[in-house]
Amino acid sequence: MFADVAQVIEGTGVFIMAIGLGILLVRYVYDVLRRRTGSYQRVRVNLGRVILLGLEILIVGDIIRSIIVDTSVESVLVLGLIVVIRTVLSFALEVEISGSWPWQTRPAADEAAGKSPS
């Protein structure tokens, strides 16, 4: 039963990433055809957000599968490795999206533009 729940959750994460990519690509093509500026940057940021959401959902599925379904030391170690890898990916994507390190008080883009923090 819990294996099925984990599989549905993981499928949901993949579905969100696939549908998000499709929507973003359609929107990007529309923006390019309308010659809107900044289309590429917007699609990069939004794609990063879609991937982050999908990764978070996949981690939930992995936790359920490793802790509840397959309780062994090996599965917990594999889960730990998966979580570390996905956390590093999430961190890198967040830095890419925001343009600054999490410990910086202002995003790098705001500093370059001379904007003050809100």
TrEMBL record:
Keyword field contains Mitochondrion: no
Coiled-coil stretches: none
Transmembrane spans: 12-30, 50-69, 75-93
Top-level taxonomic group: Bacteria
UniProt-listed InterPro entries: DUF1622 (IPR012427)
Keyword terms, alphabetized: Membrane, Transmembrane, Transmembrane helix
Database matches in PANTHER family: SLL0939 PROTEIN
Name of protein: Putative membrane protein
Organism: Kribbella steppae
